[in-house]
Amino acid sequence: MRILFISSTRLGDAVLSTGLLDHLLHAFPQARFTIVCGPVARDLFARMPRRDRTIVLTKRKWDLHWLALWRDCVATTWDLCVDVRGSGVSFFLRTRRRAIMRGGRRPGPRVAHLGRLLGLAPPPMPVAWTDAADRARAAALLPGQGWLALAPTANWSGKVWPADRFVALAHALGAEYGLRPVVVYGPGPAERAMAAPVLAALPGAIDSGGTLALPQVSALLARCALFVGNDSGLMHLSAASGTPTLGLFGPSRVSEYAPAGPRAAHIVAPGPEGRAPIDGLAVADALQAARDLLRRT
């Protein structure tokens, strides 16, 4: 059995789609998978069982990337095509069954939208795949227990909680629970620049470097007692890794993109959804949310 799964370009959306893939892995134990995703999400699927191939969809002018994908897949007869991008490419492929996400905003969590694509309620929760080498690398970077993951970056400045508040929260959680900080962020100079003020103010923090592959990041997050971070792909990856995850939200669609999973929580700055400035979120409120999450988990 051959399954084509067209996932998302952005990391956070791709992470949320892994719940569907995990369901399909269990529902069709003989199936082989081809994954389609954007460049930033490529490594997310590197350790996925029974993955034959990952096709990286790089955007081109005039949507020619979809034509390139069609050319890549047209020679295969697929048993199932799942398209969470809603591209409609599978209408032009030989496939026995297709499930295509419809466009447009809908109320409710994104994981629920994805679950409805295959008629699943409650929806399957996201997962993260790692191997023994990833876990050994993470153990070498973070020996022992009691680590606090801080993720002070995001894909736009409106989502970024001020660096001094991350620092104050880290000090408070360190004093109260003995948690030691590790700062996690993505690759590239922009991500490092956002993380730099937190690293400078916490000289004892571990700098994850922004150079780890996504399965290594997932293994590192799984070793942490708590994750606190902005609305980002790393927040979703942390929740998928099973780490107690506290997402910090300002002008984001929290009703759709709150972290998903049994050990996930979020806190929102005061104000209307989608317009609340994140600097309205106080350290004391984030600290209490972290306490509540640690108590629950």
TrEMBL record:
Matches recorded under SUPFAM superfamilies: UDP-Glycosyltransferase/glycogen phosphorylase (SSF53756)
Keyword Cell division: no
Keywords annotated in UniProt: Glycosyltransferase, Transferase
This enzyme's EC code(s): 2.4.-.-
Protein name: Glycosyltransferase family 9 protein
UniProt xrefs under Gene3D superfamilies: Glycogen Phosphorylase B
Organism: Nguyenibacter vanlangensis
Highest taxon above the source species: Bacteria
Presence of the UniProt keyword Transferase in the record: yes
InterPro entries associated with the record: Glyco_trans_9, LPS_LOS_Heptosyltrfase
MF (Gene Ontology): glycosyltransferase activity
